[in-house]
Amino acid sequence: MKVAVDQDKCVGSGQCVLAADDVFDQRDEDGIVTLLDADPPAQRLADVRHAAVVCPALAITVEE
Ligand code: SF4
Q1: Which atom of ligand 1 is nearest to the CA of 54?
Q2: Is the CB of 33 under 6 A from ligand 1?
Q3: The domain that contains 26 carries what CATH number?
Q4: Which PROSITE patterns match (predicted)?
């Protein structure tokens, strides 16, 4: 699985971290998303997809 985030779109809501805190994190200074794992294992797909769906900025893309 390939995950990408667009920090220019991110509004720092943190929904992605709630969904998958092993894949996404937020910068301490402004809450903007950072990617902890750009190639998570397949068993994380459901949670990573959920993060992409709930992201209010549509800043997360997932390719299987
Ligand atoms: S859910 Fe979207 S807007 Fe919120 S922190 Fe994550 S990437 Fe940024």
Answers
A1: 1
A2: yes
A3: 3.30.70.20
A4: 4FE4S_FER_2 (PS51379)
